[in-house]
Write a structure and sequence with these properties.
Length: 223
């Protein structure tokens, strides 16, 4: 399921688009300004950004530039300004498309589908705190240093970082890892792999900030 970050400070537009996009099978997350948008982009994975030019803090042009400097993710501008300068400025900053307000939701949906098809060949990256995963190449980096993980460690990391905030029980993790690798994994082995993964990805494995234990329930990546 594709995930959208909607950067928009008009609550009516946010509410309407959230309902519409969810009904169309998209997951949608919101941010009302540049700071919040950049924080979410740094910590979570999105397939596309819908970006208003007028924001509570910052503006769409500076936000677009900042987002593109962090991650190669498609951006569609939502703008009330259909003058040539605004359009050209947005596209020169790296936006993939723009749509003028007021717009019909179905038209926006078509634009999103077109942009996603056009950018489908690009590498998929997951960025969470100081960890970056190139999913197509299966390369993991902490800041600028590559981390070498076993197949099981890599699979575990993907499970958590693709689902930040979701708690996975030990039973569920064992089922998912078994399906992915075909290797025999038991409860004790899972404990070992969790520890090994923390040793590699955490700045201080004794006080983890990425892979968290939820007492009595399991593990999760913090939101």
């Amino acid at each position: 399921m594709k995930k959208i970050l909607l950067v928009e400070d008009d609550p009516d537009i946010v509410s309407a688009l959230t309902v519409f996009m969810k009904n169309e099978g998209y997951l949608i997350d919101g941010a009302d300004g540049q700071r919040t948008a950049l924080e979410k982009i740094a910590q979570r994975q999105y397939d596309i950004v819908l970006l208003d030019i007028s924001l509570n803090d910052g503006n769409g042009f500076s936000a677009c530039s900042a987002i593109k400097s962090q991650k190669d993710i498609p951006i569609i501008f939502l703008t009330a300004n259909d003058d040539e300068f605004s359009v050209v400025s947005g596209l020169e900053l790296g936006a993939d498309d723009y749509i003028c307000k007021p717009f019909r939701p179905r038209e926006l949906l078509a634009r999103i589908s077109t942009v996603l098809r056009r950018t489908n060949g690009k590498s998929e990256y997951i960025v969470y705190k100081d960890i970056t995963i190139d999913v197509q190449k299966a390369i993991v980096r902490k800041e600028d240093t590559e981390i070498f993980l076993s197949a099981l460690e890599y699979r575990l990391l993907l499970v958590f970082l693709q689902n930040p905030g979701i708690v996975f029980s030990r039973k569920k993790l064992l089922e998912m890892i078994w399906d992915a690798t075909g290797e025999f994994i038991n409860d004790n082995t899972l404990t070992v792999y969790i520890k090994r993964l923390r040793d590699k990805i955490e700045t201080n494995p004794q006080e983890p900030e990425i892979l968290l234990t939820v007492r009595g329930l399991g593990y999760k990546a913090g939101e």
